Structure formats: C-alpha cells, structure tokens
Amino acid sequence: MLLTNLKAATMTDGYGLIEDAAVLVEDGRIAWAGPRLDAPAGEATDCQGMLLTPGLIDCHTHLVHGGSRAHEFEQRLTGISYAEISRAGGGIAATVRATRSQSEADLAASACKRLDALLAEGVTTIEIKSGYGLDRDTEMKMLRVARELSQWRPVDVVTSYLGAHALPPEFKDDRQAYLDLVCNVVMPAVAETGLADAVDAFCEGIAFSVPETRRVFETAKSLGLPVKLHAEQLSNLGGSALAASFGALSVDHIEYLDQAGVDAIAASGTVAVLLPGAFYYLRETQVPPVAALRQAGVPIAVATDLNPGTSPVHSLLTTMNMACVLFGLTPEEALRGVTVNAARALGLSDRGVIAPGKKADLVLWDVARPGDLAYPLGFNPLAAVIHNGELVRGLL
Ligand code: DI6
Ligand code: FE
Can you identify the CATH homologous superfamily of domain 56-345? Predict the structure, then answer.
C-alpha cells in the first residue's frame, strides 16, 4: 500500500511534519516514509491532502470492569464526598463487587462497547489494568478479558496487574495479609500465565504506602515484570521517586509531584503520564508540574484513565484537549503524548512514530494541520484507520 498526497505528522521530532508526503506500507510495517517526490514507484492511494498520524495509544485505562457508578456521580453533585461514598461501601469497592459477580462474557461485552468509542477516534493500542477483582480469580479473569479484546477488535492490548489498587473488604483489618496474597499468590500466578505485561500500584494515603508499594515492586522485579505507578494524585508521598528507583516505565497522575520527584523521574527516563479526565471529574485544582517536567526533559504522555469512578472518559481526543486547556500542554505535546510518548510509557519502541521499520498503525484525519486534533471538543475528524498494515476503518 503506497499512500500519497498527504501531510504526515511523523512525530519523529516535534510533529515531524512532511507537507507533501508518501508512506509505503508492506507486511504490516512502514517500509518507507518521506516527501512524495522521492517516493518509490508503484500504484498509489490518493489521500486527498489529509493528515496522517501514527495510530493513537491510550496508555492508561481501567477499561474492563463491571457495573456503573452513575448514581455516585449524582451523589457527589449533591455534595457527598468521594471519601464518604467510599466509607459507605461505594467507590472502588462497589466496582469490585460488580466485577466479581460478572461472567467473563459479560465483562468482555461491556468492555467492547467502551473500546469501540476509543477505536472510533483512532486508538490502535490500549493499555488495560486489572484492579477491580483483587482476589486471584477475578484479577486473572479481568486480565484474560483484556487480552481477549484484541481478538474481537483491531487493537493491540497491553495489560497491567493492579492488585495494589485498594484493600478488598475481606482484608480490611489485615493489610499485611492482603499484600502477602498480592506478592505470594496472585502476582506469581499472573506472571506464570503471561497475563500481565507490567505491574501497577496505587500509592496514596487512601490506598498503599511507599513501603507497601516497594514490596510490590520488589516482587515484580523478582518476577521480571516492569513497574509503573499511580502516584502523587491527591498528595505528595514520594511514590514517583520510589518508582524511578525501580526504573519504572511511567508515573501517572502526578498533580502533586515536587521538584525532587521530577529530578528522580528525569534521571530514570520514566514517562510522566497526565490524566486530565480524573483531574476534571474530581474538580482538582492542583495542576501537574508541566513546566518543571519540560525543563527536565521528561517525556510527557496523556491518557484517558477510563474508569467508572473518577474518569468515565471514552475519548482520547477530548483528553488531548483537556491536557491543553487544563494543564497548559501545547497541541503538539498533546499529540506526542498519545503517540510516541505513550508508546514509551508502555515500553514499546516499535510504534508511535511514522518511520521505516515501525508498525503500520496509522490514522488519516480530515484536518488541515496537526494542531486541529486537540482544538475542538466533541468533533471527530477521523477518515480512516490502518492497523497492522490493514485498513480497518473508513475508505481509502
Ligand atoms: N486512581 C483513581 O483515580 C482511580 N483509581 C486510581 O488508582 C479511582 C478508581 C475508582 O474510583 O474506581
Ligand atoms: Fe488509573
């Protein structure tokens, strides 16, 4: 497939824009990309001057889960706090109950509907976490469903085991015993069966402490699994520096990250994943330290955090816009955040840019300039999607 008459945002450096470009796709890979005048000969597909970008990557989601928390959204709007709802047995615990009670088929069906919303906006790789099962069988069920989604839809799925998300009710008086279960039973089972590509944890006053997170990370390391962390979302505990000391792929949220934390993740090459959907739904006011991250040269990614509690956000384009409006990212940073830097946050070096040898995951957009992608709200200019070198959406 030789695509011509297009603008290519290759994302190799900044937008890496080639105004009048051609891209050759062979065997699921990009074989050649450059100015049309230099293109190899062959039968060409005219892309009518549209913009080609790498396939979008949503590098942080909780896509697989049971139930809905719409009633909690209503409660919060009457002034009841997230913490009060949680103490009354709602919050994460409510989703854990719903997820435990659902069959694999039902979980897959609801996840597919959410996934379809993301795919309609050009997502070709998605990360999906467990963390709403907390017991061994439900965590493994969630991860199996996540993996299975790539059989039903044209998307690559990367999974993370998030056992240290919340303390399940049956362990409410014994944190130590729950961490024993995570480290001695569930994580080894997940590693053994190859169900997780990485291990995640929630390091926060309402979740797990820095020493508890360290124990989870040490176990992950002993099992050969890379780590990432929900860190500094509601307070500054120093989880990001801990994650950096384990060479974490990413630290996510990080509204309360301080300069020492920025320096630590800069030194370890850890990606900063910004999640403006959760910031928006929680009406948070502390913005992540974007200027300090830029200054330190930390790669910044952007993701939906799609989850039923704090970020029921099913649009990566909207999330890019939020990252610009709420956090002050440039549209270029937002697009890098869902392509090249999102790939890096998942430890994937084979995608996220348009360059020879990379995976042919590509999106064609009916826009004049790459800055148009993060600009509107509620408008989807997608024209076509290529996944693994195959046209999977739209017409060419
Ligand atoms: N951070 C969050 O904001 C969500 N999980 C996490 O680790 C909350 C998820 C929920 O409320 O269901
Ligand atoms: Fe999350």
Answer: Metal-dependent hydrolases (3.20.20.140)
